[in-house]
């Protein structure tokens, strides 16, 4: 029954957001990798304002390694935590140059071993750049999965594997993008719009708004 409900939820969200995909702008796997690193503790909207100019100036891993930290810090300042992100980007680019011939590896395991790249970033790149089945868990995915009653956990890895248990592989990438979009538009942290939610009847989350509708 749990898997059946998960499939129903996927179907409803897919119908509601037929064009759901990664909100980050990118033209190739390397751009998505850098954009995802920048998106930590930052909105995709803000990252998308920074990356077009960034990628016009720096197109390859070697380009990022060729500039002083201060220049990169200035370029990405508005994304927050710019010193740590500069360090992560440069360390990641160094490994790409030295071990991967300046190419982003397609293997999830190799992606996750890159400096500054955790399971979420590896899943975003694997799924959206290479079409490899993966579930990326951000704050929206974590929150909504709990609200839907599939799990009670703040551990992103447990959320990831829960969806992998609930849905077939061909739906893993899209469920992340669907939940993220739904979290931004309707199931908003601290003020979920339950009355307007297409998942209202399938969601156990207690809400006065929901009760009024029902």
Topology:
Blueprint: H1 2-16, H2 29-38, H3 44-57, H4 61-65, H5 69-76, H6 82-99, H7 108-112, H8 119-130, H9 139-147, H10 156-166, H11 172-185, H12 208-213
Please name the fourth-level CATH homologous superfamily of the largest domain: Hypothetical protein, domain 2
**Low-pLDDT sequence parts:** 210-214
| Rg over CA atoms | 18 Å
The number of distinct β-strands equals: 0
What is the general shape? elongated
Averaging pLDDT over every residue, what do you get? Answer: 94
Which topology of the largest domain does CATH recognise? Endonuclease III, domain 1
Structural class: mainly alpha
Helix content: 55-70%
Distance between the termini: 23 Å
The main sheet comes to: none
| Tally of helical segments | 12
List keywords for this structure.
single chain, 214 residues, mainly alpha, Endonuclease Iii, domain 2, Endonuclease III, domain 1, 12 helices, elongated
Describe this structure in words.
Residues 210-214 have low confidence and may be disordered. The protein has helices at 2-16, 29-38, 44-57, 61-65, 69-76, 82-99, 108-112, 119-130, 139-147, 156-166, 172-185, 208-213. 35% of the residues are buried. Helix 2 packs antiparallel against helix 8, helix 5 crosses helix 6 and helix 9 packs across helix 11. It is built from twelve helices and no strands. With 214 residues, the protein is mainly alpha-helical. The protein has two domains: 2-18 and 137-213, Helix-hairpin-Helix base-excision DNA repair enzymes (C-terminal) (Endonuclease Iii, domain 2); 29-130, Orthogonal Bundle (Endonuclease III, domain 1), CATH 1.10.340.
């Amino acid at each position: 029954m749990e898997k059946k409900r998960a499939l129903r939820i996927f179907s409803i969200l897919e119908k509601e957001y037929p064009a759901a995909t990664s909100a980050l702008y990118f033209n190739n796997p390397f751009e998505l990798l850098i954009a995802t690193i920048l998106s930590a503790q930052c909105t995709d909207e803000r990252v998308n304002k920074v990356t077009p100019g960034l990628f016009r100036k720096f197109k390859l891993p070697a380009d990022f390694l060729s500039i002083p930290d201060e220049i990169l810090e200035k370029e990405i300042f508005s994304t927050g935590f710019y010193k740590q992100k500069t360090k992560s980007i440069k360390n990641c680019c160094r490994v790409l140059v030295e071990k991967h011939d300046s190419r982003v590896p397609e293997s999830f395991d190799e992606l996750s071993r890159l400096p500054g790249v955790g399971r979420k970033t590896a899943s975003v790149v694997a799924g959206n750049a290479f079409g490899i089945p993966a579930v990326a868990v951000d704050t929206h995915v974590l929150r909504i999965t709990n609200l839907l009653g599939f799990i009670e956990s703040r551990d992103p890895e447990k959320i990831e594997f829960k969806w992998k248990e609930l849905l077939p592989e061909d739906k893993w990438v899209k469920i992340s993008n669907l939940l993220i979009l739904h979290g931004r538009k309707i199931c908003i942290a601290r003020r979920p719009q339950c009355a307007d939610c297409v998942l209202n009847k399938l969601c156990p989350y207690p809400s006065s708004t929901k009760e009024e509708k029902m």
